[in-house]
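Fold this sequence, please.
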Amino acid sequence: MIPFLLALRWGIFQEGRFLGKVLDEWGVDTQEFIHSKLPHLVVVLVIAFILIRLLSILTSRMVHVAETHAADGIRLAQVKTLSTVIRATGLSIIAVITGLQFLDAVGLNLGPVLPASQSAWPRKPSLKTCSTAS
């Protein structure tokens, strides 16, 4: 590996040449990413993993309690369906938030993405005060 890296610095990859400058910038960008953004991404992944595990425990506990206390099969089926919907919705929300964090850390501009999602929500009516001029 080391001889390969040393060979990259010769020929067209010398320091003064164009590809040498590109290689130097990649090295600087990689170091910056590892130093500043990678710890943030690791924390986001750990939090997402913990939330997914908590969601899984919650939904399985819901089904377990329903199995022990359900009087009929219809109620048990309803609880199982509800727990599946809760789990799928929770996983989707966690995945979207984690994905947005990753895209932000990579440097993608999220400005165009977020207003598109806000347009789906109904806007609150603005409270304008009417003043009468006499």
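The chain has a mean pLDDT of 81. The two ends are 84 Å apart (CA to CA).
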